[in-house]
Design brief:
CATH superfamily of the domain at 9-174: Nucleotide cyclase, GGDEF domain
Oligomer: single chain
Shape: flat
CATH class of the domain at 9-174: Alpha Beta
């Protein structure tokens, strides 16, 4: 079709089409023609109203050009509003995706040619139904000139099909219409799938079959005994399916998890959902997944079958969620598609096959590849082909069993491996007839490999099985052979076990290797550990080692190495959880209580508050934990800290009260002083000032008698908190300035930054706005280095209140938006509104600006990067407010 008067030069291209038009056609049948006609009419009205030229139309797709980028944006917005307001047949919405790009309008005959046309089409293809996406070029022209009701939101860089460089994409947000779309469809989809250190062999048929199942079913379970390659197959399937899921594919390793109640927490951590104090993790997870097009790969569900209904619940609440799971048995859930993972193809020993024919079998390929990993010169030849084929066939094509056998090629020729395997498996089949054949074969291969180890290697191996989620070299040495009784170097033994495929290794962020076992091998190791005469000592060393780690970390979580310690505890989270549980099971409840008490700040700072509360409450509820001991008092103090940061002050008060009662009975001066401090803090928050004052005074006497200077300094900061609440800001400032000097002398970044924050709040109340800003900026920089988001939120809320006091409600709204954007993923946390009774700056700024101006500033703050936020807070006001007086916001009013 020839279209006259196509504009040239710099133009803006618009591409549109209906999302899911084929499905819509199938559901509507003949009525689809009426829908398409109405769709065309609505789009053409919007295009004509903005001066656009319709270049071509094909089916439900439009190609339009505009001389003005702003006009193109207006047309897209008008079209989306009209489409949303239309009453469609059978209430089936017609969702249209749109893409805009400004570029060179070069004609070739009666149509446009050139890369800019293709770029606009690809941008449209990246959008979702109801969404309008702009290129950076279009954004540069229209930003700053958008009419009311329209704004832009940065989406980031994405690689689009057939385009060499990533594109910076921007969403057009239309007031009153949907905003929260999944990530743009691109060649790069978010994922957290672990990289495989060895090559993937064969399985073309299985990949195709499982992929096809995922296309038509939202729950696919790969089943089979351990060692059949379920995880490897699942990872490859997930990787290949990733582009079909706009919000990504994520691996959730459940092997270290033994409690089904921890499944939601484990999934939430994998996909990046932070716990919220105000609701269960499962509710937060469901809300996060509800509108996301995502693939979850749940690995090793078999030991958590009681948690299988959770899988059904997630799928039922999230229409676009797909789950791929591995288990030794099906989950028996409605809609589940089971796929029994077969062994690798192995040769028929009765057939006379050439070397070339043998080399084509997946089992043989795997054996040769793994053999070359330990002996690079290994080749399949006339001398060894028959033995290799016999090994692969005898092992039923089981990948793990073949890898274990191939790892022995460094020591044995294939014929020798074949002979020893025949003997080992023949012995096993008579004693384990209750196991499936493939599982007996696998266990036989593990046992054969285990039997070939030196005695000290066997001991190290089965002692390593006590670890959950792997171990460092330091931990392995401390638990497996701390006194070198075995007469072997643990590191050399670990390297030997890796060579034999009984152990795996992966680097961590600090460069140190982390050693772990496949779950099947670990189960075998635990069986052997049960027969170790020193099994009780091994378990005790394991429990004490991680209790010691928790104890060592506790004071460091407030110091200069805070982030490094938090990262370390995160890596050992499974071991810490398991060690506390084992200690309780072994009758060492005191150790379990003390260990868990030491971890409360880790749980708080890394957002694991729900897990921490559950762990402490479960231990404290045990009958053997009811004795009023020092360990119980410490655990109660930890529970008080966790519940306080969940904003459950009542629960914190109950825990602190019982801890105080125990400490009084124990007559430990320092323990009693700490308990009094905690109780006084809660009393201050709830307004019981006389009780708080008495507790602080008693604690001060105890610290003075003990000569505990650090305790006295902490206590003096508690007194500052009380003075602040009572409105005595001058006394509070004088005391806090002395405290801050002591903190600076001690060199602890957390205490320095926290002390500065409190002093800044006091200065704000006194009307010292310049001093307040300087302090907030310094504290913000320190907390940024440690990554303490809770503290950053507190500072930003104070900064918003400062801006109100300075007469700048626009910046107050912007800073409030920035604070909320950081706070919301953290859940309910204690803020200056609760701790210091600072008035909420948001409604005050809203009243000062009006709804529209406030929303514009607030949303701008929500989209700011942290660097921009810091720079904005640091910027002095254009017209400094008169200091020392009460502001219109009430920022200088005292607490009653």
């Amino acid at each position: 079709m020839h279209v006259p008067d196509l504009p040239t030069g710099t133009v803006t291209f618009l591409f549109t089409d209906i999302e899911g038009s084929t499905a819509l056609l199938q559901r509507l049948g003949p009525r689809y023609a009426d829908v398409l006609e109405r769709h065309h009419a609505l789009l053409r009205a919007a295009i004509k109203g903005s001066g656009g030229v319709e270049v071509s139309t094909e089916g439900d797709a439009f190609f339009v050009v505009f001389p003005s980028a702003l006009a193109a944006v207006g047309a897209a917005a008008a079209a989306q509003r009209a489409l949303a307001e239309e009453r469609w047949p059978s209430k089936l919405p017609v969702r249209v995706r749109m893409g805009l790009h400004t570029g060179e309008g070069t004609l070739g005959g009666d149509n446009y040619v050139g890369l800019d046309v293709h770029r606009a089409a690809r941008i449209a293809a990246s959008a979702h139904g109801g969404e309008v996406i702009l290129s950076a070029a279009a954004r540069a022209i229209v930003e700053g000139s958008l009419p009311a009701g329209l704004r832009l939101r940065e989406l980031g860089q994405f690689r689009l099909k057939d385009l060499a460089r990533p594109e910076q994409l921007v969403q057009l947000v239309i007031r009153g219409l949907r905003e929260d779309f999944p990530a743009p469809r691109s060649l790069e989809v978010p994922a957290d799938l672990p990289a495989q250190v060895t090559s993937f062999v064969g399985r073309e048929r299985e990949l195709a079959e499982v992929g096809a199942l995922l296309d038509r079913s939202r729950l696919v379970t790969l089943t089979g005994p351990g060692g059949t390659g379920k995880t490897r197959l699942g990872l490859r399937v997930a990787e290949e399916a990733r582009p079909k899921h706009a919000d990504g594919a994520f691996f959730v390793g459940l092997a270290p998890v033994s409690d089904p109640q921890l499944i939601p927490t484990t999934i939430a951590q994998a996909v990046g959902v932070d716990e919220e104090a105000s609701r269960p993790v499962l509710d937060s997870l469901e809300a996060y997944l509800r509108d996301r097009h995502m693939l979850l790969f749940l690995d090793n569900l078999e030991q958590l079958m009681a948690g299988a209904p959770l899988v059904s619940r997630l799928i039922g609440s999230a229409d676009h969620l797909t789950i791929l799971a591995t288990s030794r048995e099906p989950l028996h859930l409605r809609g589940e598609q089971e796929y029994p993972v077969p062994p690798l193809g192995a040769p028929d020993l009765a057939a006379r096959l050439s070397i070339e024919a043998l080399a084509a079998y997946d089992a043989v390929i795997l054996f040769v590849q793994r053999a070359r990993a330990v002996r690079p010169d290994f080749t399949l030849d006339d001398a060894n082909a028959a033995a290799v084929a016999a090994i692969c066939t005898r092992l039923n094509g089981l990948p793990l069993a073949i890898e274990l056998a191939a790892a022995r090629i460094k020591l044995f020729a294939p014929a020798a491996i074949q002979s020893r395997l025949e003997k080992s498996l023949a012995l096993l089949t008579g004693g384990a007839s209750d196991l499936p054949e493939r599982q007996r074969t696998l266990r036989g291969a593990i046992e054969w490999s285990y039997d070939l180890l030196h005695p000290f290697e066997q001991t190290i191996f089965h002692r390593l099985a006590v670890f959950r989620g792997g171990s460092t070299l330091e931990s392995a040495e401390a638990v497996c052979d701390p006194e070198h009784e075995l007469g072997a170097d643990v590191l050399d033994t670990l390297a030997s076990l890796m060579d034999k495929s009984l152990l795996q290794s992966a680097p961590t962020e600090d460069g140190e290797p982390r050693f772990g076992m496949l779950e099947t091998i670990r189960e075998f190791g635990l069986e052997r550990l049960a027969g170790d005469p020193d099994v009780e000592r091994v378990r005790q060393r394991y429990e004490e080692h991680f209790a010691g780690l928790a104890r060592e970390a506790e004071p460091a979580l407030l110091g200069g190495e805070q982030k490094a310690w938090l990262d370390r505890l995160d890596r050992e989270r499974d071991n810490l959880r398991a060690a506390a549980q084992l200690a309780a099971e072994d009758g060492r409840i005191e150790l379990a209580l003390r260990m868990s008490a030491s971890l409360w700040r880790f749980w708080q700072q890394r957002g694991h508050l729900a897990e921490g509360r559950e762990a402490l409450a479960r231990l404290l509820a045990r009958p053997d934990a009811s004795t009023p001991t020092k360990a119980r008092a410490q655990a109660l103090a930890g529970l008080g800290g966790v519940t306080y940061w969940q904003a459950d002050v009542a629960a914190a008060g109950r825990a602190y009260a019982e801890a105080l009662e125990i400490e009084r009975a124990l007559s430990d001066p320092i323990g009693l002083a700490e308990a009094l401090y905690n109780s006084a803090y809660v009393a201050t928050v709830v307004g019981e000032y006389e009780t708080a004052q008495a507790d602080y005074e008693e604690a001060m006497r105890l610290y003075q008698q003990a000569g505990d200077r650090a305790g006295l300094t902490r206590l003096r900061e508690g007194l500052v908190f009380l003075l602040f609440h009572r409105g005595d800001f001058a006394s509070a400032r004088e005391l806090q300035e002395e405290n801050l000097a002591a903190f600076r002398a001690g060199g602890e970044p957390f205490r320095i930054a926290n002390g500065i924050t409190i002093l800044s709040a006091i200065r704000l109340k006194e009307g010292d706005f310049a001093g307040t800003r300087d302090g907030l900026v310094e504290a913000l920089q320190i907390f940024r280095q440690s990554g303490d988001l809770h503290a950053i939120v507190r500072i930003l809320m104070l900064a918003a209140t400062l801006s109100l006091a300075e007469g700048d409600p626009v910046r107050a709204a912007r800073t409030t938006g920035a604070a909320d954007a950081i706070r919301e993923p953290l859940g309910e946390i204690a803020t200056p509104l609760q701790l210091l009774r600072i008035e909420d700056p948001a409604p005050i700024a809203r009243a000062a600006l009006g709804e529209e101006a406030f929303e514009a500033a607030y949303k701008a703050g929500r989209s700011m990067a942290l660097d921009e936020i810091v720079a904005d807070v640091a910027e002095p006001p254009e017209r400094p407010a008169k200091e020392g007086g009460r502001s219109a916001t009430g920022a200088s009013s005292g607490a009653s």
